[in-house]
Specification:
Elements: E1 4-10, E2 16-21, H1 24-32, H2 38-41, E3 47-54, H3 57-68, H4 72-79, H5 107-116, E4 123-132, E5 145-161, E6 165-171, E7 177-186, E8 189-192, H6 199-214, E9 223-230, H7 240-252, H8 256-262, H9 269-274, E10 280-284, E11 298-302, E12 313-317, H10 324-333, H11 339-353, H12 358-376, H13 381-385, E13 393-395, E14 403-407, H14 413-418, E15 424-426, H15 427-430
Helix pairs in contact: 7-8, 11-12
């Protein structure tokens, strides 16, 4: 594994670009010659204002993703070598109260903070990505689930404009545009200016229409430029939709869970992850009224999940993004009385939180795999793809795609690379632990 560098460039328009490379001198030369990222190509010349050196390129990559989500103020504190200021500044917008759903917050306080923001945009929001460690599928029917917010998430920034339009741009983790469109705001209607059949356009229009239903004054008399940016690969399945839902809900001052119900549905654990900076347990209780689905009570609790053997835990991407809605439909089509399995999964969740031994942890997640396999009538992922792996493997979320959890006494990256799976992320580089980030 070669050494790596993470670097920050200041562009001609004053914006910052963060990247990582194995050859710093060559990469800067490429940027200056217009052979770098789209962001720098349009903003030449650029100047190197900061860099860090790492023993491994993958460590530089993870540091790059962390810095990319930081506010401008925090990047400048890093550039100016003011580390003491870092904790008090916004960390990937996570420290901004505007990124939290709180009943105690008022619209006036949001507006006040927006006016005080010195960044280019009026307001900024950030939501954490998610991983469901236990309880996949059966969380829908009351199982106690353990969910982990990730260090990777999505930001949303808004600039108010005079025209009654919503000019939308979505950037990937490298700052490249992967989606853009303009929506017209006319007499309480939101219209797709391009009138295309793009799936993303349809979904976004569905979300905006649902927001207008929850808050009729939203987008009523103003126009906005909106820029979203992921700091994870769009195919990773860490919550492209849930982070967007939560960011838009905070912007529009509506309940994120209600917005989820009107759009993507699901259990809501992913929304809970967007709003927490530590591991949580998530559980749905019986509905108060069976005629209103939204009346399910959500029990969300922050938990101290910090396994002593976390250096032996790895997340491996299966090279494709799984459609969770299809997985849920498959689960429901096979559904019978799973009360016994739900109780067993809840017990495993409780035991995992307090687990002190890797061997016991392995036994618990293997038992969990067997139970869920029987519920959804599928073979466990280890049996299907990794039957010669010397360790345990557990599916996360919808089976068949996204990430799996692998446990190994030694770094298993070489093993998975021989199988064609190149994205192997250590636990400490994936899971968000608020104590380690401040």
């Amino acid at each position: 594994m070669p050494k790596g560098f993470v670097y920050i460039l200041e562009c001609s328009d004053g914006t910052y670009y963060t990247g990582s490379t194995i050859d710093l001198e060559l990469r800067i030369k490429q940027h200056q010659e217009g052979q770098g990222a789209n962001h720098t190509k349009k903003r030449l010349p650029v100047a190197l204002v900061y860099f860090e050196e790492f023993q491994r390129i993958d460590d530089a990559f993870y540091r790059e993703k962390q810095i990319q989500g930081w506010s401008r103020k925090k990047k400048e504190a890093l550039i100016k070598d003011n580390p003491n200021k870092l904790p008090e500044l916004s960390l990937a917008y996570r420290d901004k109260e505007t990124s939290r759903t709180s009943a105690s917050r008022t619209q006036n306080s949001l507006v006040s903070e927006a006016l005080e923001d010195t960044n280019k945009y009026n307001q900024g929001y950030y939501s954490n990505g998610k991983l469901l460690l236990t309880g996949e599928y059966v969380v829908l029917d009351g199982a106690l689930a353990l969910a982990l917010p990730t260090q990777f998430g999505q930001s949303l920034e808004i600039e108010e404009i005079d025209n009654p339009k919503l000019i939308w741009k979505s950037l990937d983790e490298k700052g490249n545009v992967w989606y853009e469109n303009t929506f017209l705001l006319q007499k309480n209607k939101i219209l797709n200016q391009l009138q295309d059949d793009n799936t993303v356009s349809k979904r976004l229009l569905q979300i905006l229409t649902a927001v207008a239903q929850l808050n009729p004054d939203f987008l009523n008399h103003k126009g906005f430029k909106v820029t979203t940016q992921l700091d994870f690969d769009i195919n990773w399945g860490l919550g492209t939709s849930s982070t967007l839902i939560n960011n838009i809900a905070n912007w529009a001052n509506v309940d994120a869970y209600k917005l989820l119900e009107l759009t993507f549905r699901g259990s809501g654990y992913d929304i809970a992850c967007t709003q927490h900076d530590s591991a949580i347990t998530y559980q749905l209780e019986n509905e108060i009224s069976h005629s209103i689905r939204n009346d399910k009570i959500r029990k969300i609790k922050s938990v101290d999940f910090n396994p002593s053997f976390k250096d032996h835990l790895y997340f491996v991407h299966l090279n494709k993004k799984q459609n969770s809605r299809e997985g849920i439909m498959h689960y429901k089509s096979n559904k019978t009385n799973f009360s016994k399995q739900i109780s067993e999964i809840s017990d495993i969740t409780s035991q995992l939180i307090s687990c002190k031994s890797l061997s016991v942890f392995n036994t618990l997640i293997e038992t969990h795999e067997e139970i869920i396999a029987s519920v959804i009538r599928q073979k466990p992922i280890k049996e299907r793809l990794f039957n010669d792996f010397e360790g345990s493997i557990k599916s996360l979320g919808a089976w068949g795609g996204d990430f799996v959890l692998a446990t190994s006494k030694d770094n298993p990256k070489a093993y998975f690379e021989t199988k064609g799976f190149l994205t192997v992320i250590p636990y400490t580089n994936m899971v968000l632990n608020n104590k380690s980030l401040t």
